[in-house]
Amino acid sequence: MTAGSTLMNGTTAEHELAALQREHGRPLFALLLRLCDGDRQRAEDLAQETLVRAWQHPEALRADDFDSVRPWLMTVARRLAIDARRARQARPAEVGDAVLENARVSSDHAERAAAMLDVRRAVKTLTPEHREVLVLVYFQGASVAEAASALGIPPGTVKSRAYYALRALRRVLPGYAADLR
């Protein structure tokens, strides 16, 4: 099919586009498949878009400068493939559902803040002796010996106060019992 034979009254007729597809569709698709790294769906979409461009620009197909419209079609197809690749690279990568299902769930800041408030309220219910042992040993990271020295009490007393303080917290914070072991 030559460029001059594809036009009818300034518009491209359906049967002429079908003929264009039959004559140039396979090489056009082969080029696009290679440019799309084997993605058949994308190559088919770009081949269709190339033919839409031919329909939109019948004046390009009418030019007497060439014997066949294939070079024009291939150039349009190559440019469309380049534009599509650049557009995909500009967007973040698409993620499938399987990836999301296997993604690690990070803790919610609101839940963490609410838990901190619950623990603060619960610690305030303890006796001052139990509270100061918990603050030294669990919140400030002091060893039993360091806490005993700081408080001026024997290490065994630090251990028993810590034990009874945690037991009291388990009663006040039943939803957090696993975290207090």
Would you kindly provide a written description of the structure presented here, covering whatever features stand out?
With 181 residues, this protein is mainly alpha-helical. 69% of the residues lie in helices and 0% in strands. It has helices spanning 14-35, 40-56, 58-62, 70-90, 97-101, 109-124, 128-139, 144-151, 155-172. The longest helix has 22 residues, at 14-35. It is rod-shaped.
Short description:
The chain has about 180 residues and is mainly α.
Task: Give descriptors for this structure.
single chain, 181 residues, mainly alpha, 9 helices, rod-shaped
Largest sheet: none
Task: Give the CA-CA distance, first to last residue.
Answer: 82 Å
pLDDT averaged over residues = 82
User: Could you tell me the radius of gyration in angstroms?
Assistant: 37 Å
Structural class: mainly alpha
As a percent range, the share of helical residues equals: 55-70%
Helix segment count? 9
The helix/strand series, from N terminus to C terminus, equals: HHHHHHHHH
Unreliable stretches covering 5 or more consecutive residues? 1-10
Question: Beta-sheet strand percentage?
Answer: under 5%
* Overall outline: rod-shaped
Tell me the total number of β-strands. Answer: 0
How would you summarize the topology of this molecule?
Blueprint: H1 14-35, H2 40-56, H3 58-62, H4 70-90, H5 97-101, H6 109-124, H7 128-139, H8 144-151, H9 155-172
